[in-house]
Amino acid sequence: MKRIVEIVPARPGWYARWRLGPDTTRCYPVTLWALLEANDGGGREVVGVDCVGQWPGADDDTDADFVRYLFQTPDSGVPEDAEPPPAGRERHGGPSRAAVPAA
């Protein structure tokens, strides 16, 4: 069993990449980093929790396998396999804007 020692928010640009199939991966933004410690104090590790609540080593029923964490500067865009944001959600600090036809 492990215990959480510290939780800190993740800076924009961090992603967790998961393998969904032989040739398919998906990236989700990391929302927080957690420092975990073994109950016996023998070891520590840092894990990132992504925006859908997944983290490496979690006991869940997902078929996805963790591949790696990656960092991409926010001004360079998102990874090509990033999960698209849900419609109507805010992006990059402001609402997404769609073109509105003139009356």
Structural class label: mainly beta
Number of helices: 0
For the terminal residues, how far apart are their CA atoms? 62 Å
Order of helices and strands: EEEEEEE
Q: What is the strand tally?
A: 7
Please bin the fraction of helical residues.
under 10%
How confident is the prediction overall: mean pLDDT? 82
Gross geometry: globular
Uncertain residue ranges: 89-100
- Rounded to an integer in angstroms, the radius of gyration calculated over CA atoms is 17 Å
Could you tell me the strand content as a percent range? Answer: over 45%
Summarize the model shown:
By secondary structure, the protein is mainly β. The chain is built from no helices and 7 strands.
Describe this structure in words.
- With 103 residues, the protein is mostly beta strands.
- It is built from no helices and seven strands.
- Strand 6 (90-91) and strand 7 form a beta hairpin.
- 0% of the residues lie in helices and 48% in strands.
- 8% of the residues are buried.
- The N and C termini lie far apart (62 Å).
- Residues 89-100 have low confidence and may be disordered.
- The strands form two sheets. Strands 1, 2, 3, 4 and 5 form a five-stranded antiparallel beta sheet that branches.
